[in-house]
Amino acid sequence: MSALMWIAAGSLAAWLWLLLGQGFFWRTDVRLPRRGPDGSGPPEPAGWPSVAVVVPARDESAVLPASLPSLLAQDYPGPAEIFLIDDGSSDGTGKLARELAEEYGGLPLTVDSPGEPGPGWTGKLWAVRHGMALATTRIAADRKDDGNHEDDGGRADEADRKDDGGVDYLLLTDADIAHEPDSLRELVRAAEANGLDLVSQMARLRVATCWERLIVPAFVYFFAQLYPFRWVNRPRGRTAAAAGGCVLLRREAAERAGIPETIRQSVIDDVALARAVKRSGGRIWLGLADRVDSVRPYPRLGELWRMVSRSAYTQLRDQPLLLLMTVAGLAVVYLVPPAAVGAGVLTERPALLALGAAAWALMAGSYIPMLRYYRQTLWLAPLLPLTALLYLLMTVDSAVRHHLGQGAAWKGRTYAHPSAAP
Fold first, then answer.
1. β-pair type (408-410, 169-173)
2. Is 414 helix (H, G, I), strand (E, B) or coil?
3. What is the C-alpha separation between 196 and 206, in angstroms, rounded?
4. Handedness of CA 134, 81, 48, 30 (dihedral sign)
5. Distances from the Cα of 186 to the Cαs of 159, 190, 213, in angstroms?
6. Residue 323: which residues within 8 A CB-CB, separation 6 or more?
7. Predicted confidence (pLDDT) per residue in 99-141, tens digit
8. What secondary structure letter does DSSP report for 297?
9. What is the 3-state secondary structure (H, E, C) of 163-220?
10. Share of the chain above pLDDT 90, in %
11. What is the pairing mode between strands 198-204 and 284-294?
12. What is the number of alpha carbons within 13 Å of residue 237 lying toward its C-beta?
């Protein structure tokens, strides 16, 4: 057999292994079970714990009108408060947040600013740190006052039995994430019913333009391939990941894992957070969201390119060898099948054509569930090699930018030597 035949056979073997041996990453059925009308599903907790919603925000005035009202409108039976941390915005993010809270009402909102990040901190995690500190003191005081002055049906007594030192849970959510009214309730219900320390949902990203249709579903597909959700959710498994747009974190687990101090330099902070919690003995869960959506638009290729390339090389720990291995792996797995089909047709080699077509068919078939989840045409499935080529180029560009000293750039800040998930 020729070298191309061997490579095509290797690509087909790789796809067989990926489909059966990589945690069934291509399936989209790992989702939070919801309580049905007949009462089926996770039971409600005896007492609803307190929750602080921490929203780090930097220059987010364009998306806040579509996201913040959904948090204000959360139908949550227990004590909850929103802390929007304005991370040095220049577009009036904090002022707009206050105006939206006044207009819509709902959960109490505190807007504050942490100042410039401390040495060794990313801006987002510095804001999260500030929000967590505010939440711990504010809700502890509010809960104590409620217990002294109100009859709340036993919620204050339940809180006192747990701990009088602060908030029970933190919902870390990005400023572009919109939640359905029962989102917080369902997250807490799942955590309480299953003894979970971290519950994370990968928000359904916006898919409206041609470039978003081509690239966004594949972003989630590749993430699931790298961090299969079923592996993440194994209590004794080593794989850990979270989706930073929606993370419910038990405060005790955060303290045990030293969050956020232990991950303060991490650009890929969601994965670093999940690893820290799991390593410290916490139980984590990650799945796809049905009622949590990102409203941030990426209408042009350049915006999607920057979104991926700003942290792609960090994911590879800034290692040239890992970059070479990743490029070679992407080429063999995603680019060889269509190349083998083309070569088989042009050279009239049926065996080569069959190997390439079989690998391409398995690849496209594995992508169909994600396209259905995103309600996209299935004709995008055979185009996955093109999308993979774009991701390959984005990863190489990320490495080039790193070696030029540009590092991970986001909203006016550049981290020349960012940290991957520890």
1. unpaired
2. strand
3. 28
4. negative
5. 19, 6, 29
6. 313, 316, 395, 396, 399
7. 999 999 999 999 999 999 999 999 999 999 999 999 988 766 6
8. -
9. CCCCCCEEEEECCCEEECCCHHHHHHHHHHHHCCCEEEEEEECCCCCHHHHHHHHHHH
10. 82
11. parallel
12. 17
390 has a pLDDT exceeding 60: yes
- Read off the pLDDT of each residue in 297-318 and give the average, rounded to a whole number: 92
Place of tokens 């490579």: 7
Q: What is the structure's pLDDT at 353?
A: 97
Rounded to 5 degrees, what angle do the CA atoms 339, 341, 342 make?
Answer: 65
pLDDT at 209: 97
The neighbouring-strand residues paired with 173 are 246
CA dihedral 54, 57, 61, 66 (to 10 degrees): -40
Residue 417 above 70 pLDDT? no
Locate all alpha helices (DSSP H) within 28-119, ordered by sequence. Answer: 64-72, 93-104
Most confident segment among 158-162, 222-226, 311-315, 418-422: 222-226
User: Which pairing describes strands 413-415 and 80-86: parallel, antiparallel, or unpaired?
Assistant: unpaired
pLDDT tens sequence across 176-204: 999 999 999 999 999 999 999 999 999 99
Backbone angles phi, psi at 378, to 5 degrees: -75, -10
Looking at the predicted structure, is the pLDDT value of residue 386 above 90? yes
Whole-angstrom distance, CA of residue 196 vs CA of residue 168: 13
Residue that the structure tokens 């996955």 belong to: 384
Instruction: Write the burial class of residue 285 (CB in 10 Å: 0-12 exposed, 13-18 middle, 19+ buried).
Output: buried
Answer positive or negative: Cα dihedral of 314, 317, 320, 322: negative
